[in-house]
Design goal:
Mean pLDDT: 90
Number of strands: 32
Strand content: 15-25%
Strand order of the largest sheet: 30-29-28-20-18-17-32-31
Structural class: alpha+beta
Low-confidence stretches: 2-31, 131-143
Largest sheet: 8 strands, parallel
Helix content: 10-25%
Shape: globular
Distance between the termini: 34 Å
Length: 765
């Protein structure tokens, strides 16, 4: 993910959407006419309270609920006035009614002939049931001295210097440049921690229920396994704004200790809630554990213990469709399937972007938190998909975005460019709050100072990032690993807390059932920091990676001096000559190191080996023909020359198929992990959002002309009898279903040939 050149202007403070009026609040919502305050669901009764703008005396407020995706005119609850209006013109309304089996809902507010919706834009609130009753005696494990003592770096530094006071800005000024690096430093001033706690509190007009109590309480749950992955200690690392004493509810067990021990008798997810002495509460995502993963008994091969096989990359496929497709993938003989980043990310807004894309694909590479709710589906849908795939004998791999968070100026706040154009914020896929400083211009009312980098649902704050500095020298390792890649907020991956928080996220991915992961933009993390993250992950896994674990790291190697720096030269920044040394120093043995591959843009298919000899064996590389970063004009510097083909650019099925066949037929090097991209055709007008139905311009409700919207209509990803190579705009391409490619792959892994009929796609070739 090096160049994505077409995104550079998007991330560099250029969301030039003009909105009418001056924002009243740093975090004001796009539509403030109606907003949920809180909800509860117990004994099939859905209840809660709502903020309603007092536009006129006569108004109707209705909660519309559904069971799954089943909606009915009879499934409504009428809200009633409770109090108000207050000084800001809002009334408090409440609702309570029978909603048996409800899973989601939205609010409809009709007044003066106009109807407003919350959350709006075809998004719904998920019903949050009370915690499942939990039997403590089945989860407390006997003392196991093989589980190491858990010591986590603190979320917030113990001592924070005073920050520089600021005064309100005037005219068209904004805070751009205030977070730039000074001199040769790459770190924020320690006083930047004073700008934490920017989230609106409960009761504020900008508050969403998904903001929880991030205004006062942040934290996450860490997992520490024993060597056999049969016992784990879960430790909550949390911080209270005011230093309150905290209590912890682990599945119904309330205690003051932040650690809780579970063992393999636990078969359900572990719910966790943190409560402070002043009543603030934080509900963490429920945890799964490695021992709960479905066995791979249906796999056609052991794939050398998961160390040699083909992996299909289903670009833009929703989890529910992947779950169905895994039956075919397993039957075809693929070792696994890779899905796109599973974490919460930028979702978009009511408007299309400056490049006219509506909910573009590249937002999945802008993390907001490590909560597992992406546009592909919820944590529950992810877990169900992984279980279905593993039951079909198919391993599942994640795309881990751990180098950075969102683009500067992309957050939930209101913004102002230096040209006085105003634009409002972007929500996230799980509606968590998040903040940057780019193009902001107001003083945050809850900190009394200017905005800062903050992602409370992780939690990260300003000092967890490198100060803002563009990458200006591609022959300088510090610039490459500490500069901001296309204005993406660059994590300070040298910092112990950041490394440990990333390792905890990766442990969560393995715990929910992933067999491994690709590391996006690993080149920008650097060999030493990346090795230390792997070392921390290994420690959290009790000193043992799962037997079939693999990871592959995206290292886009430029030419000239950059090739020498990152590959052949043998110095600090070399992934070929120095990375193994760093992995060994971090506690990884030779078997561990063999499981960690390099995906190099330089070595395959044109220039292998780029250094003229194999400095590390070819078995340490993951290879493929086209990849998703190559599909957009100017988006990748990967040079395949005449040795490869990008399907959706060249639109030459025969040429593309031949290069995929060659991928599996080559015998000139011992490559063990081979990847096959199964993508979708972009629209003729340049629309490039996923065809999952969520980038369809029919969903657009913003003030810009609909004619300028570049969207993609819905295409059904899973089609049971689909053949390979669907070559129509906006359609999933499915080259992984091509029978010739399947048989070439099967021959490479030692499986017998198979017919289209046995694959369930008679008539396909």
């Amino acid at each position: 993910m090096r160049c994505l050149g077409f995104l550079l202007t998007l991330f560099s403070f250029s969301l030039f959407l003009i909105v009418s009026g001056t924002p009243l609040h740093q975090n004001s919502k796009r539509a403030t006419e109606v907003a949920l305050i809180d909800q509860a669901y117990d004994n099939n009764v859905l209840s809660g309270s709502i903020n309603v703008q007092n536009i006129a005396f006569l108004k109707v407020v209705t909660v519309v609920w559904a069971v799954g995706n089943s909606w009915s005119d009879s499934q409504t609850i009428t809200a009633t006035w409770s109090s108000g209006p207050d000084s800001s013109g809002y009334e408090l309304w409440t609702f309570s009614g029978s909603a048996p089996g409800a899973t989601q809902f939205y609010i409809r507010y009709t007044v003066s002939g106009t109807t407003y919706y919350d959350p709006g834009n075809n998004i719904n609130y998920l019903v949050k049931p009370p915690p499942t009753p939990f039997v403590a005696s089945t989860t407390i494990a006997p003392t196991d001295t093989n589980v190491p003592t858990v010591t986590l770096p603190p979320v917030i530094p113990a001592s924070i210097p005073t920050d520089v006071p600021v005064t309100p800005l005037t005219g068209c000024q904004n805070w751009n440049g205030w977070d730039n690096c000074w001199g040769n430093s790459f770190e924020f001033f320690p006083s930047s921690e004073r700008r934490r706690w920017q989230t609106p509190p409960r009761g504020d007009a900008a508050y969403f229920p998904s903001f929880q109590d991030y205004s006062d309480l942040v934290g996450y749950a860490d997992i520490q396994y024993n060597p056999g992955h049969t016992v784990a200690v879960v430790t909550v690392n949390a911080a209270s704004k005011t230093g309150e004493q905290l209590s912890y509810n682990f599945g119904g067990n309330v205690q003051h200790s932040s650690s809780f021990r579970v063992n393999s008798s636990l078969t359900d997810p572990l719910p966790i809630t943190v409560t402070s002495a002043n009543g603030k509460q934080l509900v963490l995502e429920p945890l799964n554990f490695i021992w709960q993963n479905v066995p791979l008994t249906a796999a056609q091969s052991s794939f050398t213990g998961g160390q040699k096989g083909a992996i299909v990359e289903l670009f833009g496929w929703p989890y529910n469709d992947v779950a169905k497709e895994c039956s075919f993938i397993g039957k075809a003989g693929y070792m696994g399937v890779k899905v796109w980043p599973p974490n919460e990310h930028v979702w978009g807004s009511y408007n299309y972007e400056p490049d006219s894309q509506f909910r573009p694909w590249y937002f999945v590479y802008q993390p907001v938190s490590y909560r597992l709710h992406s546009r592909h589906g919820t944590r529950e849908e992810l877990r169900a998909m992984i279980n279905a795939c593993r039951a079909a004998g198919v391993r599942v791999y994640a795309d881990a975005v751990i180098n950075h968070m969102t683009g500067q100026g992309t957050d939930i706040q209101n913004h102002r460019t230096s040209g006085c154009s105003l634009y409002s914020g972007h929500n996230a896929t799980d509606n968590s709050p998040y903040f940057t400083s780019g193009n902001t211009f107001l003083i945050n009312p809850f900190t009394g100072t200017r905005p800062a980098m903050e992602y409370p649902a992780v939690p990260y704050a300003a000092t967890d990032f490198h100060c803002q500095r563009d990458i200006t020298d591609w022959s300088n390792g510090d610039s490459i690993t500490k500069g901001w890649l296309v204005s993406l907020a660059d994590l300070n991956t040298e910092k112990p807390y950041v490394q440990d928080r990333i390792a905890t996220y990766l442990a969560d991915l393995l715990s929910i059932g992933f067999s491994g992961f690709r590391v996006d933009a690993a080149k920008h993390i650097g060999p030493q920091s990346q090795a230390q993250i792997f070392g921390r992950l290994k420690n959290k896994l009790g000193g043992n990676f799962p037997g079939d674990f693999i990871s592959w790291l995206e290292v886009i190697v430029g030419g000239g001096a950059e090739t020498d720096l990152e590959a052949c030269g043998g110095g600090e920044w070399s992934w070929y000559t120095n990375f193994n040394n760093k992995l060994s120093a971090a506690g990884l043995n030779s078997d561990d190191i063999d499981k960690i591959k390099i995906w190099s843009s330089a070595d395959y298919p044109k220039n292998h080996p780029i250094c003229g000899r194999w400095i590390i064996p070819p078995s340490r590389f993951a290879i493929q023909n086209d990849d998703h970063d190559q599909q957009s004009p100017g988006s990748s510097p990967r040079d395949m020359g005449d040795r490869g083909s990008v399907l959706i650019k060249e639109k030459n099925v025969g040429k593309h198929r031949n290069f995929e066949l060659l991928l599996f037929a080559r015998t000139d090097a011992d490559w063990n992990i081979k990847l096959l991209l199964s993508s979708y055709m972009f629209m003729d007008n340049g629309g490039a959002g996923f065809p999952d139905g969520l980038s369809d311009c029919s969903l657009y409700t913003g003030p810009q002309p609909i004619s300028g919207c570049k969207g993609v209509p819905k295409d059904q990803a899973y089609v049971a009898n689909a053949c390979g190579y669907t070559m129509s705009q906006g359609k999933y391409t499915r080259p992984h279903r091509d029978v010739k490619i399947i048989n070439a792959m099967r021959g490479w892994v030692g499986l017998n040939r198979i017919t289209a009929s046995k694959l369930g796609i008679p008539g396909c070739s």
